[in-house]
Every structure is written in structure tokens, then in C-alpha cells.
Amino acid sequence: MDNTGLSLDRMRTFVRVAERGNLSMVARELGVGQSTVTRHLNELEQAVGVPLLSRTTRRVTLTDEGSRYYTNCLQILRLVEQAAEEARDARQAPAGAVRLSCTAALGVMHITRLIFDFQDKHPDIRVDLNLTDERIDLVREGVDVALRLGPLADSAMKLHALGESHRLLVGAPSYLSVHGWPEGPADLSRYETVIMSNVAGSDQLVLSSPDGTSLMIPVSGKLRVDHGLAARKALAAGRGIGPAHLWLVHDLLDDGQLEVVLGDYRPLPVPVSLLIVPERAAIARVRLLVDFLVAEVSKLPGIRPS
């Protein structure tokens, strides 16, 4: 078989096997016999001319060549899907699925609610919301749009800057009543700090002073967490002080469960961005969700233009 014998069906079979690592599972999903799945893979490898998969009795894994081929297959299949979707979009209201990845705490606190509003406006659009603080490979994971906090490395994704998320140094009245209020930034080193273990450099608190200079204060604490919602709980429970995004704690500040500490000294703001897979940006339902998020995220507490 030469390359003209390749088919999209065989590529789809290969992609599913690569993602699931199990031939019988893929056969059940496709509603075919396992021998059919095996034949499709063999024909594909024969056409490509290199082994794409390494098979054992329990697991199927990608070879180095298979891993590169898998990434290319994803792009090809998504372009085919995009072509069909754009043709349909020209004739009818946008429908189908958009997969959105979002920083976990922001997703739980605010983005989920915004998705409800979006779907009320566009009831035929399904949103698959993936909440994670990991910097996932959008193409490999099949994600269309990602909402991210923090600086981003160079990327082939389309970037839409939404602004900056402003932060405050906060603590619970119960903690401050026992340990007292710090009189200045230098005092912070003797306080318990709730530390985010998944944030680089979190053992150093960087504060912007009233005159615009930056101060670096070494901090420590007996509690380290890797999730914003856990940090919110710990701060409200009086386990120490710490920096927090305003959107994460605005309600706790309003009802007095948290207080602002050293309000003239602010932790540096964090960029908020949308990453969009370029091949998906022109699809009507993806474009609608992106435009909606651009308008609504900027209204969240503490999110301001850069």
C-alpha cells in the first residue's frame, strides 16, 4: 500500500489507539472487531513505512515516529472537521462543542457561572470545561481555547491579552488578633505564610511599594497548597497571611472573614490571557465564546487592563 491508500478512518483509529493505549477499548468505541482495528493500524504503518506503535500484551504505546505522526494526524483531522463546520456555520446557527481549559480556582469561582450565561444565549453550543493549573498541550488534548493566569512562554497559539489580575496581601482577623498587624514589609518574615507550592518563587513575596519600587521579602509557612481554593480556605481559617487574587477572596473581604494587610504594599499583578488554537479561531462557535470571554472576564473583581 502506498500513501494514496491512507484514509481518514485509519488516522482516526490510530489517534484513538494512541490516546487510549488499548485496542479492545477502541474496538468497542468504534463498534467493530479488534481484528479490524489491528488491520487498520497495520495498513497505516505499511503506508507510512515506519512502526508507529509498540505493542505488548497489556499496553500499546507510541514510538518516537508515532508520537510525531500523532501530532500531525490531530492537526489534519481537526482541519477536516473545521472545513465541515465552517460550511455548516454558513447555513445555520452555530452549534457543536467548544473545549475550554481554565485555571482551576478561577474556573470554579467565576468561569463556570459565565459559561451558564453563554449557553443561555447559545443553547446549541456545548462547552467542555477542563479545569487544570497545568500548562497542557492544547492540540494534543483537543482544547480549542485556554484561559491562563501568569506569564506565557513563546507559543504557536493565538494570544489575546485580557489584562492583569490584581492581588492583595490578606489575613483573617482571628490570625491577626493573636499575632498582631505587621507595621511594615520587613515584619512579614516572622508571620506564617500560606504558600502556593505550584507557583515558582512563592518563598519570596514580591511587593510593589507606594513609590513604585519592588521589595522582595523571604517568607515561610508550615502549610503549602497547590490549589487556589485550598489557599482561600486556609487564609479564611487563620492559618497565616498570604497574597491572593481579588477575584478569589473579594466576598471574604466584603463580609469580614479576611482583612487587607499592608494595603499600601501590593503583590505584583498577574497577566490574564486567552490562548486560541489558530486552526479553530475562525469557527463560529469558538469565535463566539472567545468574544464572550473577552467581554466578561474583564468585569471580574480585580481584573483590569494591562
Task: Please provide a written account of the structure.
By secondary structure, this protein is of the alpha+beta class. Helices cover about 40% and strands about 25% of the residues. It has helices spanning about 10-20, 25-30, 35-50, 65-90, 105-120, 140, 175-180, 230-235, 245-255, 285-295; strands at about 55, 60, 95-100, 125-130, 145-150, 160-165, 165-170, 195, 205-210, 215-220, 225, 240-245, 260, 265, 270-275, 305. The strands form five sheets. Strands 4-3-5-15-6-16 form a six-stranded mixed sheet, with helices on one face. The protein has a three-stranded antiparallel sheet with strand order 12-7-13. Strands 10-9-14 form a three-stranded antiparallel sheet, with no helix packed on it. Strand 9 and strand 10 (about 215-220) form a beta hairpin. Helix 1 (about 10-20) packs across helix 2 (about 25-30) and helix 2 (about 25-30) crosses helix 3. The longest helix is centred in the N-terminal third of the chain and has 26 residues, at about 65-90. The chain is elongated, with a radius of gyration of 24 Å. The relative contact order is 0.15. The model has no long low-confidence stretch (mean pLDDT about 90).
